[in-house]
Amino acid sequence: MNALRAEWTKFRTAPGNLWLLTAVVVVTVAGGAATIASVRTGDLAEYSLTGVQLGQAVVAIIAALTVGGEYRTDMIHTTLTATPRRITVPAAKAVVVAGVVAVSGAVSVAVSLLVGREIRPGLALGGEAVLRAAYGSVLYLILIGLLTVGVAFAVRDTAAAIGVVLGLLYVFTVVAQMVPDPEVRTDLKRIAPMSAGLAIQATRDVADQPVAPWDGLGVLALWAAGSLLAGGVSFRLRDA
């Protein structure tokens, strides 16, 4: 509990974090509004939530700074002195990142859907599929944050962690789209963290998606779990 309190204190007192959390909301809502304003038909709920694809980049920056900032300033040694049990440090940081991303993600998703309904009155906010897309999108952002925490502990550098995560999210997806073989392309979409995870947003023609909504989010959860495991092991084996 002391470690968690310490990590929360460091997070809320770090300059820029509040603005970054605000940026998650702004870019997510703006991205969704721009998309749904440009379409006439289709999956309106999913279009309203497309801003998550932009908001996730800010989430990755927040998570990377939460870990990498201590390596840049060598504060990690002070943290380890105060918290000798190594597993406690990454666990506490992961909980803090998950918590703040959950709040900003929930606000982002709720406002995105409300704005989407204002732009397209035909967007229904009730129903099981839309609710699943909504809270699934929040879970998606949380998993992106946890994925980044693991990567940041493994590489011990903010810029490198951001680069690795954004590469996994965007480059992997772009490459999958460019593969000429449709079967290979589908297989890549099923394992790519972004395309698989965002399957949770589909509310129409779900059966035509490369991966089922919850299965896709499960794929992203496996990426996040693997990243946290790798980062935790790396942190435990190194001097700092």
From TrEMBL:
Recorded coiled-coil stretches: none
- Which sequence ranges are marked TM in the entry? 18-39, 51-71, 91-114, 134-153, 160-179, 217-237
Tell me the keywords, alphabetical order: Membrane, Transmembrane, Transmembrane helix
UniProt xrefs under Pfam families:
ABC2_membrane_4
For whether the record's keyword set contains Ligase, the answer is no
Record's GO cellular component, any one? Answer: plasma membrane
State one molecular function term (GO): ABC-type transporter activity
Q: What is this protein called?
A: ABC-2 type transport system permease protein
Q: Which organism is it from?
A: Actinoplanes xinjiangensis
